[in-house]
Amino acid sequence: MTQSRALAAPPRHPSIAGAEASRLDEQSRARRFEQIFTAHLGAAYDFARWLTRDDRNAEDVVQEACMRAFKSLDGFHGDNGRAWLLAIVRNTYYTWFRRNKAEGYSVPFDEDSMAANTSDIADLESSIGSVERILQQRDAKRLVNAALERLPEEFREVVVLRELEDLSYKEIAAIARIPLGTVMSRLARARKMLLQHLQQAQRES
Amino acid sequence: MNCTESRAHLHAYLDQELDLPGVVAIDQHLAGCPACKALVAQQLALRSGIRRHAEYHEEPAALADRIRAKIGAGAGDASPRIPRPAWRWPSLGQWLPAGAAAAAAAVISWTAAIQYAGVSADQIVAEQVIAGHARSVVTSRLVEVASSDQHTVKPWLSSKLDFSPPVPDLAGAGYPLAGGRLDYLDRRPVAALVYRHRQHVINLFVWPDGKSARGRPEALAKNGYNVLRWTDAGMNFWAVSDVNAAELKTFAEAYASAK
């Protein structure tokens, strides 16, 4: 395991009895972390990039998140390393990044407005069909990415976790620390907003 | 089930998060409700648009080593450990209505059960193929375009999908075409071709594979259904039916040589 060597801690007190055991312990921790890290760094970065919408900030978030993950590795006993790492990325973004890097960053968010997600179906119905036309346009890629970036982060994150990371409601609920029902209602609302963004972009072009 | 109920669970349905009774109830509603069906089509179009076009940002090449170096340097120090976040799976049933919750308690979500049992992707697809077949036979949603004419079925499917499945006429071989419909499998919209063989129905699910290699047919049987899968010319083919394995193989050979 040459990869894990860089993660192993140097022995601090090689002459003291017991230090050898703790060094081995550190090595096995490092190996365990390396496995999760190697497998899920790509997902962690993509998620951070969609949260921050910026290359450099995404790197900062992932780096800090991985430090945190390594330190809290002993508390992780599950087998879903990806969901665990993504949860730490998200937590790092909302706590560390927003406090230290992006003062005053805020997104207006009205949770109440989600309560009635079936009441305004009429206007959704009126738009059926046009989304298919929009998605067949030549600049569909730009339109889709712009529509996703415009979503408030609480909605953006559930769409990214669902559609790009292919995670289940249960995994998304655990990562975003919201109930399953909220995962569903946020996805419903996010998709509705995406349709509106796409249609708006269509009208403006 | 009415429109309000159906729409309340539409996203769970689209995301394959509903249990089988819930799926069947919505399928039944959709069969008779063009408005809800149009909503489903719109959502499927949106989803495939996102999945096809949304950027998956690759991490910079040097990031992994930078993080390894940082962790290696900091691992031995006495920095306080961050208390681990409360890591708990939320309980199922917080949002299911009472009836569905009871069913869910008995069945648990089968997709989740499969996902966490550590079974292979092929087995998950096989389960979905069988469920899709059973659903199409049990509900009235066997075909959306009912026609024995391949020149009607193929353009209909091509217009709804981002690929064009081969739809040969196999009546001469004893497998008349009954029609086609859209289905959702392996997390993408797929073509479902419906052929008949005597009193039996054969569903053939087709979707692009991305690989051009030709894969040998593999057969499996489960819950009284026979499944045969193969790949050809960059397409996945999954045939499922209650006909016996030999007949399903004959069908597959007829299809492969006629297309």
Structure at a glance:
The complex is a heterodimer of chains A (205) and B (259). Chain A is an all-alpha fold and 205 residues long.
Order of helical and strand elements of chain B:
HHHHHHHHEHEEEEEEH
Largest sheet of chain A: none
Mean pLDDT of chain A: 79
Structural class of chain A: mainly alpha
Low-pLDDT segments, ≥5 res of chain A = 1-14, 104-119
Q: In angstroms, what is the radius of gyration of chain B? A: 22 Å
- Helix share bin of chain B: 40-55%
User: Strand order of the main beta sheet of chain B, please?
Assistant: 1-2-3-4-7-6-5
Written account of the structure:
The complex is a heterodimer of chains A (205) and B (259). Chain A folds into two domains: 2-100, RNA polymerase sigma factor, region 2, helix turn helix motif (Rna Polymerase Sigma Factor, Chain: A), CATH 1.10.1740; 111-204, Winged helix-like DNA-binding domain superfamily/Winged helix DNA-binding domain (Arc Repressor Mutant, subunit A, Orthogonal Bundle), CATH 1.10.10.10. Chain A has ten helices and no strands. Chain A has helices at residues 2-5, 19-52, 55-71, 81-100, 121-126, 130-135, 140-150, 153-164, 169-176, 180-204. Chain B folds into two domains: 1-53 and 106-118, no CATH class; 121-259, Phosphorylase Kinase, domain 1 (2-Layer Sandwich), CATH 3.30.200.100. Chain B has helices at residues 3-8, 10-14, 20-31, 34-53, 63-74, 98-107, 110-116, 121-138, 150-160, 245-258; strands at 145-146, 177-185, 188-197, 200-208, 215-222, 225-232, 235-241. Chain B has ten helices and seven strands. Chains A and B meet through helix 2, helix 3, helix 4, helix 5 and helix 6 of A and helix 1, helix 2, helix 4, helix 5 and helix 7 of B.
